[in-house]
Amino acid sequence: MGKGGEQGGDSGEPAAQIRFYTWEEIQKHNLRTDKWLVIERKVYNVTKWANRHPGGQRVISHCAGEDATDAFQAFHINPTLVQKFLKPLLIGELAPGEPSQDRDKNSQLVEDFRTLRKTAEDMNLFQASPLFFSLYLGHIIAMEVLAWFMVSYFGTGWIATLILACILTTSQAQAGWLQHDFGHLSVFKKSSWNHIVHKFVIGHLKGASANWWNHRHFQHHAKPNIFRKDPDVNMLHIFVLGDTQPVEYGKRKLKYLPYNHQHEYFFLRFSPFLIPCSHTLLIPLKSWLDPPKVPHPTLIPYTCRASIQVSAAPCKPHSNYLMFLESHWFVWVTQMNHIPMEIDSEKHRDWLSSQMAATCNIEQSFFNDWFTGHLNFQIEHHLFPTMPRHNFWKVKPLVKSLCAKYGVQYEEKPLGKAFVDIVGSLKKSGDLWLDAYLHK
Q1: Domains of the chain
Q2: pLDDT tens-digit profile of 15-30?
Q3: Which one, 112, 197, 202, 249, has least CB within 10 Å?
Q4: Rounded Cα–Cα distance for residues 375 and 420 (Å)
Q5: HSE toward the beta carbon, residue 242, CA cutoff 13 A
C-alpha cells in the first residue's frame, strides 16, 4: 500500500498530501479498467484519460504498470505542454527507496540513453529543415503534374500508360513516406501544424485517415514486434512470425493457412494486395463503423481526385494495377526492418533494448534514402520518432557507440539482403510451425 507524505506549495496554501508507491503495487495496475504508469518517478492514474488520449487509448494502455518516461519523451515534441494534461492525473510518486526503472532494468543504460537524447537535442537534431521538406513535397507534386501532362498530350496508349503507372506509383510511395513525417510530428515545431498537414497529405494524396494511421502506427512504435500490442505483427492468422508463435500454433494444431508456404504467398498475395485491400475494405469500413475517431470526410478529396484521374484515362489499365505496384514497394520496405528481427511476447525491456531487438538498418546511400523514405535508418527512427529524417545519419554514430558500450546488437545490412531475409525469416517460421504441427 502507498505511503503518505507531505508536499508543500509556493502559494502559502496548506501542504498537500502525497502518496508513495512501490513498483510491486504499480505493476498490479495494468488492467483494462485500471491503468497506472510512471513518468520521471511520478505516478499517474490514466484509467479514465486513456479513452481521450489523442494518440489512442491502446498506445498509452500498453505502458500501464511500467516506467513510461522514454516513451513519453519519444512521442511528444513539447512535453512541457503535455504536462498540463498529466497534472490532474497525478496520484503520487515512487517511494524514495524504489529504483527509477522497473523490473531490474539496467538503470545506467537508461540514463546513458537519456543523456544521448539530450545531446541530440543540444545538437539541434530535432530541428527540421524547411528546404528539405519543401523540395520533397515539390518533387511529389511535380510527378503528379507530369502524370496529368502525359494524359493530356500523349493519350492513353499502352506505352504512355505504363510510364504513367510508374510515375504515379512513385509519387504515391513518396507521399506515403511524407505523410509518415508529419504523422510523427517531425516537420513543424507545433503539433497542430503537423496534424493539419498530415491530414491533408494522407487524406488528399493517400486516401486514408490520419487518426486511423496514428492510432495504429503509434502502437507499433511503442511496442514493436510484441504480440497483442503491435498491430503490425497481429496478422489475423495469415502468418506465423518469430520463433515462439509458430511452435505454439503447431502444438495447438492451428492451421488457418499452410504456413510452411507463407514465404511464397507473402510475395504472391500479401505484398501486392495489402494496400488495395486496405483502401477498398479496411479503411472505408473503419471510417463508417467508427466515425467519431476516423471521419470518412478525410477520404473525400482523394476519392474525387482519383475519380477524375480515372475518367481521364478511358482504357484505365493503370488504375487497376497502380495500387498493386505501390503495395509491393510499401510492404517490402516496411517489413525488411522488422520481420527478420525478434518477434515475441512482452519482455518489459528498456526503451533502447526493446527498439534495438525489433529493428535493423539498411546501408545508407542516396538511392536507399530516397527509395525507403529514410526508413533504412529504422533504428534511429524508432529511438527518436519525432526526429526529422534528414538528421538520422548525424545521430547514428552516437547510437552505435552506446550500443557497443552495453553489448546491444546494432544490425545493418545491404538492401538486397534485407529483402532476402524477409523470405528466409518467413520460411524459418513456417518450418517451425510444420515441425510442431506434425511432431509435437
Answers
A1: 20-104 (3.10.120.10), 106-439 (no CATH)
A2: 457 899 999 999 999 9
A3: 112
A4: 17
A5: 18
